[in-house]
Structure formats: C-alpha cells, structure tokens
Amino acid sequence: MSLVPTTDPVPVDKLGPTHFIGLGGAGMSGIARVLLQSGVEVSGSDARDSETLRELEQMGAHVHVGHAAENLGRAETLVVSSAIREDNPELAEARRRGLRVLPRAAALGALLLDREGVAVSGTHGKTTTTSMVAVVLQHLGADPGYVIGGKLVTTGLGADAGIGGPFVVEADESDGSFLMLTPKIAVVTNVEADHLDNYSDLEEIHDNFASFVDRVEHTLVVGIDDPGARKVAELARERGKRVLTYGEDGSADYRVDGIRARGFTTEFTLHTADNDPIVGQLAVPGLHNVLNAAAAVVVADELGHDLDVAVEGIADFAGAARRFELKGEGGGVGVYDSYAHHPTEIEADLHATRAALDSLGEEAPDLGGGRVVAVFQPHLYSRTRFFADEFAAALDLADQVVVMEVYAAREDPEPGVTGELITSRIDREGVWYVPGREQVVRKAAELARPGDIVLTMGAGDVTELGPHIVEALAEAAESGEDARG
User: Fold this and answer.
1) Which domain holds residue 93?
2) Any catalytic annotation for residue 127?
3) Active-site residue 170, yes or no?
4) Binding residues for ATP, per the UniProt record (predicted)?
5) Integer Cα distance of 286 and 252 in angstroms
6) pLDDT-based confidence at 485, cuts 50/70/90?
7) Which of 167, 219, 277, 346 has its CA 20 to 30 A from that of 460?
C-alpha cells in the first residue's frame, strides 16, 4: 500500500448516479447510506453478501454480489477504497468509460461541503471520539450527520445524514486520505507511529498532519497530553489557527481530573477557566475514554452549545461496536471485544479493564480477584514485525495472554512473522501462542474462571470469537466444571 493521492471532493448534487466497489464495508456503506438519504442514486458491489448490503438495498440501492463490469450500469461516479486493485473489472470498466473515480475519502469530503464539518483524526480513538461527538450533539438537540467506522449503540447505525446540524466524520490518517477533508473543526487525539507500511517514519506522519492543519477552516481541538498532538497544536498556532486543548496536563484549556473507575463506568471532573468544575459520568471504562469524552465536549462548546448540558450528554454514550463491546457472559465470565490493534491501544484497554475489576473488588469484596484474559490477533505482518516488542510489553499487563496467528488483511505473509514473534518476548508463565481459531476458543474458556474478564483484541476477524467463547464458558458451567477445565 501507499498514501492515496489527494482528490478534491465534488458537491453531492454533482455526483450523479454513484457506484461503490466494496459497498458492504463499514466505511463505504456509511457514505452510501448518507447519499441515498440525500437523494443520490446509489449502486454497489461486494465480494460476498451481507446484512449491510440488504439494508442498503431496502433503502433503494442497486446491490450486486460479486464484481463485474456490467454492475456499473448508468453510474457517472465510481467510489473506491485504497484496497481495490487496478485490475478490478468494475474499476477497469470505469477507466475505459472515462467515469469520475473518487477515493472513498473524497466521497466523504463531499458530505462536508455544505455543512459545519467536524473531522476527528489521530492515531487512536477516532471511532470512539466521533461517536461521542455525535451522541453529545444529539443530546443537545442538534441533529448531526455522521459517518463512523463502527455502529453507535444508541442508534444501531454507523451513519446518518441528520437534518441541518453539523456533520461529524472520522479523518483517516492511515493512508493520507484525511487530506481530502476540509472541516470547520478538527480533533487531533494523538499522533504516534503506525501504518509504517505506508509511511517511512514518524516524521512523515507529522508532515501529513501539518498538511491536515492547513485544511482546517477554523479550530483545532487537540489532546495536549500526547507529545505528537502537542506538536500539532504548536504548529497550528504558528499558522494562525484557533487551538483548544484538553487533557490532564495543567496547561489544558479543558482539564480533566478526579478520574475514578466505578466498575465499568467512569467518573471525572472537567475544569475550564470560565466555568465551575463539572462532574461527568461515562458508561465505559478507561482514562483514554475520558480524554475522548473531553474532546467531544470541547467540540460541542466550540459549536456554541451549553457546556454543562454537553457534559451531561456524554453519559448517553453507550459505546460503539468493537470498542470494549460486551459480547456476553458465560459461567460468571464477562467477554468483551476491542478493536485495539496497536500497542498503545492494547495498553489502554488492559489498564481500563484492570481498574474496572479492582473497583468492583473495592465496592463488593466478594467480586474481587478477577483476572484479565487477553486474546490478541495481530493485524498485518508489517505492524507485527515493527512493534513485536511493544506488543509484548503491552500484553504483559494481562494475567493470561493468548496470541493468535497474524491477520494478513491486505498483505502477503512474511517468513518468520507469526504471533509467536510476540509471545516469545513475554518471559513468564500464562502466555500461549495458539494459531487455530477453534483452539483459541477452547483455550480462552479453559483459562477463564468466574469473576474474570476475557478481552478479545485486534482489527481482524477475532471479533467473531466472542460469542463462541461465551458459549464455551456457558457449556462448561452447565456441565458442572469450572471454566478452567
């Protein structure tokens, strides 16, 4: 892969009939949904059928399973993701016919052209923060549009056009596609090294964020605790942008403290120069989620809404799909799923889980002693190779660790790069490399005991294992065995 060439967005009313390759994907389906709501004729294809395709078909999209040149029909615009190869028959036909071909991000940028655009960027926390902004604005009575890389628990949707309010989207830095967005307000949660299959180093990532700063029309909202994001804030001020900061740091314009885990909920206090301290409640665990919530509240305040009501609204956030999502409970063991696929994200989720279990023990001693069983699927051979040591250090925070085989995604296998590259760097008992999916389910159920949490983590199909682990745990409990076998 490489960085996507920047393409200027086209106004929605100029797109004409629009065809999507990979229509069932989270990113593509959300844009297609909003275009359908906006009156655009939409068609699309995907390699396999899905519930998402059928939902779009019910909304009026022309849906095809499998890729073929004739699927383009009367399309005038083709939307593609960076994963689509040039030899795809639909892309080849679009080139032959001279159709407008837009990267996914340019189609997303079109949705911001006539709205108050809010774009959430950063190495970690984009989906959660975008979701929180949408939920807070809904609580405030606005009707925001949004396109999110996961589904909101509150609405069951990953995208919606809204009516007249701001439009909130994720700004993806992974392939440089955020340089096709021109938001009024942008959030930068943090900036770290990642996606080194696209970028040569962290310096190049910072260069791209500098270019993103230039595209922001008015305000940068920046997580000041993160060194990389702090550099972005300094640069933005030098370039004359309005900058608002949030974090635990004493210099933050919106400072959070008093962070306390209460089971799997979190309490915090927000301080600003112009307001009395405001106590907030969050229905998800972790310092990282408190910081994401602070970013959402800053955006609402900058859009002119009441700050106290915005903080109140964050309590409505019930989570987003794959972001510490409860998959079920079996045999007294809770099973959660997380999209964490970078060492920093894994560390944050494991700290949050540990704090939640400890707080449960404080409030109900008979519930104390629960352990964290981490099931991790590395995502991409390149990322596994680059960050093997960091993955090992992060996973070492769990009591029991199961590492699966690498999820290849868009890459070809690399000799010597397997999940064992990570487990071999954790020098203690309680660590297993288990390549097979069925064996992973059995191992997780074998390790867990009542009061524990099993947390599946990764950006691949590890997300499918949660229900199977719940079932295995329940079967063990019903058979009279404890979950350890």
Assistant:
1) 12-103
2) yes
3) yes
4) 122-128
5) 19
6) very low
7) 167
